[in-house]
Amino acid sequence: MEARENAAATLFSLSVVDENKVAIGAAGAIPALIDLLCHGTPRGKKDAATAIFNLSIYQGNKVRAVRAGIVPPLVRLLKDPGGGMMDEALAILAILASHQEGKAAIAQSEPLPVLVEVIRTGSPRNRENAAAILWSLCTGDVQSLKIVRELGVEEVLKELSENGTDRAKRKAGSVLELLQRVDPVES
After folding, report:
1. DSSP 72-85
2. CB 149 within 8 A of CB 185
3. Residues near 12 by Cβ (< 8 Å), separated by ≥ 6?
4. Domains in the chain, CATH or no CATH each
5. For residue range 32-69, what is the model confidence (pLDDT) as tens digits?
6. Is there a contact between 90 and 129 (Cβ–Cβ < 8 Å)?
7. Which of 60, 106, 131, 133 has minimal CB crowding within 10 Å?
8. What span, in angstroms and rounded, lies between the C-alpha atoms of 55 and 61?
9. What is the pLDDT, as a whole number, of residue 187?
10. CB contact at 8 A, 149 and 111
């Protein structure tokens, strides 16, 4: 395990350089990093998550990560607030949500309730990433908009659009605009 975690730390360091992102992804490192994310020590999990985040900045690695099964473990990490990996999971999901295949995989994992809860109670950075993911999932998906409305997202988005980070304000405002276009909830 220690050797795998040292390798993850090395990949995390190397993945900062853009040229290395392509080579590391093409070499097949992403599945091993996902395995470490699921089964490593806390330090190994953090290094694996940071490497996956860095690698996923490159579009081709987003697909590799999604096809290697990254989304279900990330959503499990979101649902375990005591696990100490929520920041990393949200950051990676926010990057993956910008790719169609990533968006579809995230939607299949039914993350809407936990995303709304993060927007309600999370740290400023986590609220920002959760709002960005929510915007990606709700754009063009009336059913998701209806679900988040039923979860009471409008009030927390209004608060976020006034008090969040600049990016959080933009994403919250965009989701609120999408919600305004959907038929009101039937009473």
Report:
1. HHHHHHHT-GGGS-
2. yes
3. 47, 48, 50, 51, 54
4. 1-109 (1.25.10.10), 111-187 (no CATH)
5. 999 999 999 999 999 999 999 999 999 999 999 999 99
6. yes
7. 60
8. 6
9. 41
10. no
The residue type found at 26 is A
Q: SS3 of 69, please?
A: coil
For 143, counting Cβ atoms within 10 Å of its Cβ (0-12 exposed, 13-18 middle, 19+ buried), the class is exposed
**Which tokens go with 101?**
């295949």
User: 32 is written with which tokens?
Assistant: 């091993």
Length of the chain in residues, anyone? 187
At residue 179, what is the residue type? L
Q: Which amino acid is residue 149, in one-letter code?
A: R
State both tokens at 100.
Answer: 């169609």
